[in-house]
Amino acid sequence: MNRPNNLELLVNQENDRTHGLPNRADTARSLALLDEPKALSPVELEGRRLIHRNDSVRVQADAFRELRTRLLALGGERNFVTLVAPVSHGCGGSFVARNLATAFAFDDTKTSLLVDCDALHPSQHAALHVDAAQGGLMDYLGDNTLDAGKVIYRTGIPRLRLIPSGSQRETSGESFSSFRMRAMVDSLRSRYPDRYLILDSPSVLGSPDARILSELADLVVLVAGYGMTTAENIEKATATFPSEKLAGVVFNHLP
């Protein structure tokens, strides 16, 4: 079986923001709507390189649970938006984003929404075996008549939904800085107080997209390929984001 990668994580920075508590009625309503009638089995999850609760991937699952716990400590009581940004392409940023979203969905009181923002190298729909027939994020941003609900898909994981990237694009910065993008993120987060958004970002070095997306996020997790990303490149990447948003660095062990 293809099991999820091991990872090492280092989370830093302090955050003393205070948020309001979720409304219990809204939380119960959103959890009921995000039930998954055809939940994936552990074997199917491992085939998608996803964590689960069984012992076969306990080390990896515990690492992502720890990352989730540290983000919750930084984010306060209210839901928040997390940008997962690889230093460079090939660091495993999409793998980390996908499993972090799964870790949030482990909690029976929380839901997560994974948004694939890598228009040049979209991968989440294929990794999760989602048939994105109605389009995705880039299609929504380019079509004012398209409803956001049309591009939110089931994943086979209870309480986890996906917005795939959609139509492949060479450039996407203007779309990410648009009012429509900001309004969508605000709406998706505010509709349910238990929903946590995970934005899967393009690589930091070589593109302005990650910096633009960080303006929509509350916290940023940087992903470095263990043994392949230099300290100099990590330093360059961290300088891209406001220090108060940078939650830390995940060192991902690549296959």
For this entry, give a set of tags.
10 helices, 255 residues, alpha/beta, 17% strand, single chain, Rossmann fold, eight-stranded mixed sheet
Quick overview:
This protein has 255 residues and is an alpha/beta fold. The chain has ten helices and eight strands. The chain has one domain (7-252): 3-Layer(aba) Sandwich (Rossmann fold).
Q: How many structurally independent domains?
A: 1
Q: How far apart are the termini?
A: 13 Å
CATH superfamily annotation: P-loop containing nucleotide triphosphate hydrolases
DSSP helix count? 10
| CATH topology descriptor | Rossmann fold
The total strand number stands at 8
Low-confidence stretches: 1-6, 11-22
Which of globular, elongated, flat, extended, rod-shaped describes the shape?
globular
User: Residue share in helices?
Assistant: 25-40%
Average pLDDT reading: 85
Supply the CATH class. Alpha Beta
What's the gyration radius in Å? 17 Å
Fraction in beta strands: 15-25%
